[in-house]
Amino acid sequence: QPEQDLAGRRVVVTAGGTREPLDPVRFLGNRSSGKQGAAIAEAAALRGAEVTLIAANLETDAPSGCRVVPVSTAAELRDATLAEAAGADLVVMAAAVADYRPAAVSEQKIKKGAGDAGLSLELVRNPDILAELGRAPHEGTVLVGFAAETEADDDRLLELGREKRRAKGADFLVVNRVGWHEGFASDENLVIVIGPDDGIVTRAHGTKVSVAHRILDVVV
Ligand code: C5P
Q: How far is the CA of 124 from the centre of ligand 1 (A)?
């Protein structure tokens, strides 16, 4: 039984990857499995928190001990997150949220045109949920964001993470290297956590469960 250092705290975690529908059978998505977010939710529950997991298309089992709110699109994730975040002690935005969605969703399955060479899709920007939380008054709520980056260079990763933390008004920013074979679907993760004064508060490399506990250690 881990130390109950989150007892009496209300924690909201978003996890997974949003899907933006194009038509009744297709969507734009990403390869986030939701494993890191689910591990954070479960770790927080084990440490005594009352946890709500806002789950976007998880490709992992929902963790035990948490209330799960299933969502699919960025718009649904936004509605659920804004509702749950009010008055929470900690909000961890681990979900990979689509930056863009199709400008229109076709009522019917999009058909190939006879002899056409290609198809262009028009996309519009989705609202940035973390930035919205960061801008709004949130006394007493610690905000943790993630940055999934494909940069190989450590200094560049840190620079991106620091910029992102400030731009979104998060207290902590977890920088996470992702690629074709690392990060999203794997059971292991390598992260750098940037703190409120832009310093590195921890680096963690290991299973997503151990990384979850390290992130919670610094937040606590
Ligand atoms: O800008 P970028 O997508 O790299 O930022 C990642 C962080 O911002 C994550 O914490 C993610 O959950 C959050 N985010 C968001 N709303 C978006 C896009 C990202 O809350 N539309």
A: 16
Tokens of 5: 């250092």
Instruction: Give the mean model confidence (pLDDT) for residues 29-51.
Output: 97
Residue 164 labelled as part of a binding site: yes
Annotation-wise, does 23 bind a ligand? Answer: no
CA of 21 to the centre of ligand 1 (A): 19
133 Ramachandran zone, left/alpha/beta (phi>0; psi -120 to 50)? alpha
ipTM of this complex prediction, to 2 decimal places: 0.97
Task: Kindly state the average pLDDT of the residues 106-114.
Answer: 94
**Mean pLDDT calculated for residue range 58-68:** 95
Please tell me the predicted confidence (pLDDT) of residue 174. 97
